[in-house]
Every structure is written in structure tokens, then in C-alpha cells.
Design goal:
By secondary structure, the chain is mainly alpha-helical. It has a single domain (6-426), classed as Proton glutamate symport protein (Orthogonal Bundle), CATH 1.10.3860. It has 20 helices and no strands. It has helices at residues 6-24, 30-51, 53-66, 77-103, 111-120, 122-136, 142-147, 152-156, 162-178, 181-207, 209-223, 228-259, 263-280, 283-296, 302-315, 318-334, 341-356, 364-376, 383-386, 390-415. The protein is globular and about 70 Å long. The two termini are 22 Å apart.
Length: 434
């Protein structure tokens, strides 16, 4: 019998959690049983995601930066690649914020449900409010000062200081590039191996995802039984999917403007990689297919694909960044928090930098969301609100991540004269095997 895919297991866990809670809610002891004996497993699952956040950033980002090998490459192809990836990420986060502020999915939650949510996590909310009050009293350049840590171990011990961890990881990676390769090789080998271990740990954590979702959904139903919360989740999903669709449209527009290749040419060429990304939720797993399609069917020279696409699989997570922006504001709306313009600019910066350290594996986006929530002062317990539908959205945003990698590789190849002419009718192979 064929093994059931993880995303189906998570969906089943989600449905069973809701059904289980609805059944037990009919008994006087049902809600107490779920709160005392089921909800803790959901909390453990969220804690395991938070546990892996710092190691994930250090391993993934140091490896990605050190893979550049020669810092002089940044002068031309490297500089254009990094610049385009950062630009598209900022655009993606901005689109996410625009969509969630226009639709306001969290505002569809009734005041009574909102009060219940706030009361449930009052202690967590109060600590964030106090931290925000301290931030208001700081100077105008305090945010810049806070990026540079005075103690990396102290920074790594607090999920709210992830920008400092990201700064250290980039700084460390640059240092590895600047020393002789024979001296940096042992360190690079360590971080390459460390990265593989972390990716495996994420695999192990995601094996528990169906049970974590079951516990989170069951607790959510008994603690907030009103249907408006589930209606809000539907609007939240619409926000994310609409934003991702717009982002793909922007990729197509950029390819058309900068390379003069038609939308049909681009979509036909990259479609197999998009389908594989959708089914696996992993940019890393899709990378071999992405490279083959971009080289053979989009006409990008191997010299460009071998540099741009692996870096993109590490630092270009536009779909993930867009989702993080929507999720952060949605959770804030659900808790009745009014995020200022400055706070939302902070989300753009944090989501952009966090996406650089987001591993190209299923579930990593949720780990990075913890960083965005902590930095914006939004209760991390709000993860429980969105995790139930995270997996289907993860499939969609991974497809966007891969599409963005392909678009940037074509634009970079065109800028350095490495884009070959392929007849439009030959860039689509009806017999692809993926």
C-alpha cells in the first residue's frame, strides 16, 4: 500500500482534531480533558519549532553565504543576483501587507472571540506590550544598533533577537570567504554537516505535525468555539493565495520586460518544476528539476544556473516572506492589536532577512514566522490560529519560491549575456517525467 503523503496526514489530523473537539464539547468534562490532556501536545510541537529556529538560521545562512566561495563574484553576477532576490522579497512582503490590510481577515473575528483569545494569552501579550513600550522610548537609530549583537550567545538565547543572529551568520560567512580555502574548509565542512543535521531534525519534527495539528485544532475549537474564527481563516487563506498569484504575475512581467520572453514561454518552461515544488513543498528537493528546466527549456547558461539557483534555494523565499507578512498582521488583528506603520515596516525588514535563513524544506516557513512575530511584538501563541491550514499554503508558496528563482536566473543571464535563444515552440516537452 502506498504511503500517505505528509500533507494529507496533516489535513486528516486537522479534520480529526475539529471533529474530536466538537464531539467532546457535548460533554461537561470534554473541554477540560482537551485543555489538560490534548493541548499540551500542541504546545510541545510549537516549542519544538521555536527550538530549531536559531540553529536553522546559523546553519542555513552560513552555508549559503560561504557557498559563494569567491567574494569577487558579488561584483557582477553575485551583486545582481543578491540585489534581485532582496528586491523581489521586499515586493512580496509589501504585497502581503497590502492584501491583509485591504481585506482585514482578522477583523472578521467577533469582539467576544477576540476577548477570549486575549484572555487566554494575557501574560504573553502583556510581556510584548511592555517590550513595545520600551522600544518607543528608544532613539531613532536604536533599531540599527540592535542589529549588531554584543554577545552572540545571548542573542541566540532569545527568539526576539533573530536579526542579531542573522547579522552574525552573514558576517561569519563573509569571514569564511575572505580566508584561504584550505583554512576555511574544516569550518565549512562542519557547517555543511550541521546544516544537514538541522534539515533532518526538521524532517523529524514534521513527522509529528499531524498530531500537533490535531492537538492545536482540538484546543482551538473548545477554547474559541465561534464559527467566525474559521470564517476568518478562510479569508486569511484567500489573502495569501491572492498575494501569491499577484507575485507570479510580477515574475512574468519582469521576465517579459527584461528578457523579452513571453509569459507562455516562461510558464511552459518552468511548469514541471512548479508542479514538483507544489507536491513536495521543498525548494531543495525541486532544485535539480529547476536547474534542468531553466537550462534546457528557458535557455539560461549553466554557469548562471549553477550559481543563481542554489543561492536562490537558500535565500530567495518570496512566497514564504509574503505569507509571513499576511500571517503576522492576521494574528495581530485576531488579538485586537493595531500595528503602526513603523511596526509594519519592521515586518518587511524582518521577513526579508528571516527568509534568507529559511531552509528550503517543508515547515521551515512556520519556524521563520516565529521570528517575525517575536520581532513585531505579536503573541507567538497566535501560531495556533493558522497552523491548521499552513500545509496547503506551504505548497503554494514553495511553488512561488521556485518560480522566483527561475525568473531571477533569466534576468541575471540576460544581463551578463548568458541567455540563449530557444524557439518558443520547443521549450515545452509534453513527455516530461516529473
Amino acid at each position: 500500500m502506498k504511503k500517505l503523503a505528509l500533507h494529507w496526514k496533516i489535513i486528516i489530523g486537522m479534520v480529526l482534531g475539529v471533529v474530536f473537539a466538537l464531539i467532546l464539547a457535548n460533554f461537561e468534562w470534554g473541554s477540560t480533558f482537551i485543555t489538560n490532556w490534548i493541548k499540551p501536545f500542541g504546545t510541545i510541537f510549537i516549542n519544538s519549532l521555536k527550538l530549531i529556529a536559531v540553529p536553522l538560521i546559523l546553519a542555513s545562512l552560513i552555508k549559503g553565504v560561504s557557498d559563494l566561495k569567491d567574494i569577487s563574484k558579488l561584483s557582477k553576477m553575485g551583486g545582481r543576483t543578491i540585489g534581485l532576490y532582496l528586491a523581489t522579497t521586499v515586493i512580496a512582503v509589501s504585497i502581503g501587507l497590502l492584501m491583509v490590510n485591504l481585506i482585514k481577515p482578522g477583523n472578521s473575528i467577533s469582539e467576544q472571540t477576540r476577548i477570549e483569545l486575549v484572555n487566554s494569552y494575557q501574560n504573553d501579550a502583556n510581556s510584548k506590550i511592555e517590550a513595545a513600550a520600551k522600544q518607543k522610548n528608544a532613539g531613532p537609530l536604536q533599531a540599527l544598533v540592535d542589529i549588531v549583537p554584543d554577545n552572540i550567545f545571548k542573542a541566540a538565547g532569545d527568539n526576539g533577537n533573530m536579526l542579531q543572529v542573522i547579522f552574525f551568520a552573514i558576517f561569519f560567512g563573509i569571514g569564511m570567504i575572505l580566508i584561504p580555502e584550505e583554512q576555511s574548509k574544516p569550518v565549512k565542512s562542519f557547517f555543511d554537516g550541521f546544516n544537514e543535521v538541522i534539515l533532518k531534525l526538521i524532517d523529524l519534527i514534521m513527522l509529528a505535525a499531524p498530531y500537533g495539528v490535531f492537538a492545536l485544532l482540538a484546543a482551538l475549537v473548545v477554547e474559541s468555539p465561534s464559527t467566525d474564527l474559521f470564517k476568518a481563516l478562510a479569508w486569511y487563506a484567500i489573502c495569501v493565495i491572492a498575494g501569491l498569484t499577484i507575485m507570479i504575475g510580477i515574475y512574468i512581467l519582469f521576465v517579459w520586460i527584461f528578457t523579452k520572453r513571453s509569459p507562455k514561454f516562461f510558464i511552459n518552461g518552468i511548469s514541471p518544476a512548479q508542479l514538483l515544488a507544489f507536491s513536495t513543498s521543498s525548494s531543495a528537493a525541486t532544485l535539480p528539476v529547476t536547474m534542468e528546466r531553466v537550462e534546457e527549456h528557458l535557455g539560461v547558461d549553466e554557469e548562471v544556473t549553477s550559481f543563481v539557483l542554489p543561492i536562490g534555494a537558500t535565500i530567495n523565499m518570496d512566497g514564504t516572506s509574503l505569507y509571513q507578512a499576511v500571517a503576522a498582521v492576521f494574528i495581530a488583528q485576531a488579538f485586537g492589536m493595531d500595528l503602526s506603520f513603523t511596526a509594519q515596516l519592521g515586518i518587511i525588514a524582518t521577513a526579508t532577512l528571516a527568509s534568507i535563513g529559511s531552509a528550503a524544506v517543508p515547515g521551515a516557513g512556520m519556524v521563520m514566522l516565529v521570528i517575525v512575530l517575536a520581532q513585531a511584538g505579536i503573541p507567538e501563541a497566535g501560531l495556533a490560529l493558522i497552523f491548521a491550514i499552513d500545509r496547503p499554503l506551504d505548497m503554494c508558496r514553495t511553488m512561488v519560491n521556485v518560480t522566483g528563482d527561475a525568473a531571477v536566473s533569466m534576468i541575471v543571464a540576460k544581463s551578463v549575456g548568458k541567455l540563449k535563444d530557444i524557439p518558443e515552440e520547443k521549450n515545452w516537452d509534453d513527455n516530461y517525467k516529473y
